[in-house]
Amino acid sequence: MAKASGARGERTLRHQAYDTFTERLLAQEISPGQFISQRELVELTRMPLGAIRELIPRLEADGLIRTIPQRGMQIAHIDLELIRNAFQLRLMIEREAARNFVQTASDQQIEDLYQQHLHIQQEASTGVVSRELLQRAQSVDWGMHDMMVDHLQNELVSNVYRVNSIKIRLIRQERIGILPELVASVMEEHLKIIAAFQARDEEQAVRLITEHIEHSRSRALKV
């Protein structure tokens, strides 16, 4: 029993280390392309060295770091290949997620999404986008996409999507982000998608989610 408890504790430490690492990465406390040592990871995550040593293979498997001979560990670098691959994977998953969401989401869930987006769009339409509003817009934006994917009720897909979302968010921070002047237009794109959900129109939902993701990809690629 004690041995099993110890194993659960080790898994918990690994999960905590992973979550803390990704939080620090998205908070821009470490940067894409930056080299980092095990000691710096210990300081960053405030986790013991043993947990960090077990964390590193997972980060490598997820493509969040890579080991370069004679140089050490490097945080994922944002380049054209990563952008194309990450957005291609996102598009594949979210097309199916949108189709499924039309079929399985409740009327209340769709209405809640509509109200959240409408309120932000109305606030942004005044022309004054505060930092707080920008943060809420980003949260609502990603919240809808995460909800769609989770509705597939496929843990494997959700896990793959979560890792890819970290890469997409890194790309957005470095290349695009939601700029204050884009909040209203992004909310408008989402509202059109939500209207397709309300109409239970699968083909329209898939078409609009495709256009939405392709717009983001084009901005990231600076096309």
From TrEMBL:
It comes from the Bacteria. The keyword Transcription regulation applies. InterPro entries: GntR_C (IPR011711), TF_FadR/GntR_C (IPR008920), Tscrpt_reg_HTH_GntR (IPR000524), WH-like_DNA-bd_sf (IPR036388), WH_DNA-bd_sf (IPR036390). Pfam families: FCD (PF07729). SMART domains: FCD. Residues 11-78 form the HTH gntR-type domain. Keywords: DNA-binding, Transcription, Transcription regulation. The keyword Lyase does not apply. PANTHER family: GLUCONATE OPERON TRANSCRIPTIONAL REPRESSOR (PTHR43537:SF24), TRANSCRIPTIONAL REGULATOR, GNTR FAMILY (PTHR43537). This is GntR family transcriptional regulator. It comes from Pokkaliibacter plantistimulans. The lineage of its organism: Bacteria, Pseudomonadati, Pseudomonadota, Gammaproteobacteria, Oceanospirillales.
